[in-house]
Model the fold of this input.
Amino acid sequence: DAGVIQSPRHEVTEMGQEVTLRCKPISGHNSLFWYRQTMMRGLELLIYFNNNVPIDDSGMPEDRFSAKMPNASFSTLKIQPSEPRDSAVYFCASSSTVNNEQFFGPGTRLTVL
Amino acid sequence: AQSVAQPEDQVNVAEGNPLTVKCTYSVSGNPYLFWYVQYPNRGLQFLLKYITGDNLVKGSYGFEAEFNKSQTSFHLKKPSALVSDSALYFCAVRGSKNAGNNRKLIWGLGTSLAVNP
Done:
């Protein structure tokens, strides 16, 4: 099993640019989670999907952030426009109804200059 | 309100000594409890979980955790620490009475474990 796949692994962009992060969950998993991790705020849940439907987006910081899951094998997290305070490591995780634990991807390290 | 507390920001132990990383929780209904480990510049890795059954749960890399309902705790333990165990450890929980289909986990802030040679 390839595990959760995220791309890109690193992204450096300038303030105001659009950023798109991508995630492929583990095959057969029906829940997908987007997290953000920083030194100051720790690990924060941004949004999660169940069967491709957003269930809880209360962690999305503001309207500049949006997430989609068009099918069971792909999700995107978009930031438009990006700001320096968005710099963080963004993790995607997936889980199934059989096993409750979440499996994390390697993360995308985003730097907004 | 549901919550998780990891009271220690950092734990230091000598190699070969037993280690404990503490976690307490508050949830609605029965708890589903998890421990994860994060090595530098890596994603979080699942270590072990408690859903039901035996209060002592064994996981990866020789770690174990004990569910204590009366103390609402789920402390992570290892009998003999290795230098390679040095990492950031996260406790997480969700309640069995989460509304609807909510599979959201509540996460602790993490405990940095340093094992000294």
Observations:
- The longest strand of chain A covers residues 42-50.
- The two ends of chain A are 36 Å apart (CA to CA).
